[in-house]
Design a protein that fits this description.
Transferase(Phosphotransferase), domain 1, Rossmann fold, seven-stranded mixed sheet, 14 helices, 35% helix, globular
């Protein structure tokens, strides 16, 4: 099939090697003419074989059924189900991605190639393992520029995060242009507030001393004995590996503990009923909004035929616990993502997480009563994550904890919630599952 360029929506990018586009749920890359020879050499090389064997790069083939006007080389990549951004990762996700970057850099170096970029936006999680997917950043040569960018864009935020400052670390991880953003202003490493965590080897005096020592020893022994730069792949890998996150609790980090018994997830009659409803719908994908450590997502993955379950939450400790649980048990159905679903980052790509059904359990009362979100805004936002169905719980007793509750506003009642719900969705099921939980299953009116 020959596709015209006007019929293709290329993924926005400044990659000079080629442009990525999607076609019928497949992923392609159209290679610019002047880079064809290098790309053909790369995908037929031992480097490509090693990276794919170690699952550090997606399987890639030359397309034999798709052609694009203006391009003579079209590649097809194995699709990654959901490409989340570094600012949507938990601490251990970011740390594992940083180590995967350095491992990829090492392998490239051993084959005469290098990575020209050092940020983590060129990695994603596939089957809960980090994978490097940017073919255009793999170039012949032995340049170290990628490692210097990696220091600012990956190691530095991990160091900050390990000390307990999630907020600043997350802000840095959002930015894939650090090498441009802070010029000509003061670089991050010159900020006094960060000086305590900058490794000694990166400060000016030790760096100059290293250069002098290297020069003298090279004159004596007629060869390099000490590297002139401490910025090596091996030194960075040691630094990342040695990082340990400061332990602290967040508001919801222990919320799901009562359901987790070692490797076992304990269900309840309420969960069983929700699972039964979802099974009857014969769906392929689900997103669990404010899913905490993923107890319900894990039950869905185990007890239904849904093939892709996205579990989102804005509590980074909860998402980190879920990631580690999935990683150690090789669970590949569930995709964890750090997300405040009511207030996602600017330009958030709803398409990557949109699912057949959206589940929002035990969260609307916090949004309505604590955060004072308008109910129409809540329903509108939840609907943005859904291709067809929504399953939302209403808490008639408000912030009731099983013993008592703060006073409930008069307007917060079942009739009010139902009437508002029906403005946004076609009501299919309304059912009380527990004393303070009434489930509402709805469907988009356009479905």
């Amino acid at each position: 099939m020959i596709l015209k360029e006007r019929d293709i929506k290329f993924v926005p990018s400044d990659d000079e090697v080629g442009a990525v586009f999607y076609w019928e749920d497949r992923v392609f890359r159209a290679i610019n003419t002047k880079h064809e020879e290098n790309v053909r050499n790369l995908i037929s090389s031992d480097l490509y074989v090693e990276l794919t064997q170690k699952k550090l790069f997606p399987e890639t083939t030359i397309s034999n059924d798709i052609e694009v006007e203006g391009y003579s080389l079209i590649l097809e990549h194995k699709k990654i189900p959901c490409i989340s951004l570094p600012c949507e990762w938990s601490y251990n996700m970011a740390k594992d991605a940083a180590l995967a970057y350095l491992q990829t850099f090492q392998i490239c170096r051993d084959h005469g190639y290098t990575l020209k970029d050092g940020h983590l936006h060129n990695l994603a999680f596939f089957n809960n393992k980090p994978i490097y997917f940017d073919l255009g950043s793999i170039i012949p040569g032995n340049y170290k520029i990628g490692l210097y960018e990696f220091y600012y864009a990956a190691l530095l935020p991990l160091q900050i995060w390990s000390l307990g400052d999630f907020y600043l670390a997350n802000l840095i991880l959002r930015d894939d242009y650090l090498h441009k953003r802070f010029l000509p202003s003061i670089p991050l490493t010159d900020q006094k507030v960060l000086q305590s965590i900058i490794p000694l080897s990166q400060k000016k005096i030790p760096r100059y001393s290293r250069l002098i020592a290297s020069y003298i020893l090279r004159k004596i022994f007629r060869k390099s004995v000490v590297s002139e730069s401490p910025m090596t792949c091996e030194s960075l890998m040691k630094k990342v590996t040695a990082l340990e996150k400061k332990k602290y609790k967040t508001s919801w980090s222990n919320y799901h503990n009562e359901y987790i018994n070692g490797a076992e997830i304990e269900s309840t009659s309420r969960f069983d009923r929700l699972i039964s409803i979802i099974n009857d719908l014969h769906l392929d994908s689900m997103i669990d909004l404010a899913g905490n450590k993923g107890v319900f997502s894990l039950l869905i993955a185990d007890k239904t035929n849904i093939s892709r379950v996205i579990c989102s939450d804005y509590d980074e400790m909860a998402i980190d616990d879920l990631y580690l649980y999935l990683k150690h048990r090789n669970n590949t159905k569930i995709i964890p993502i750090l997300l405040n679903f009511m207030y996602p980052i600017s330009n958030f790509d709803f398409g990557k997480v949109k699912s057949d059904i959206v589940v929002a359990l035990a969260v609307t009362h916090h949004l309505l009563l604590t955060q004072k979100c308008p109910i129409d805004s809540v329903f509108k936002k939840i609907g943005q994550y859904s291709n067809r169905y929504v399953l939302i719980e209403f808490m008639p007793l408000g912030l009731w904890n099983g013993y008592y509750a703060p006073p409930i506003p008069e307007w917060h009642n079942l009739d009010w919630f139902r009437e508002k719900f029906k403005r946004h969705f076609k009501l299919l099921i309304e059912e009380q599952t527990e004393k303070n939980r009434i489930l509402f299953l709805g469907e988009h009116y356009t479905s």
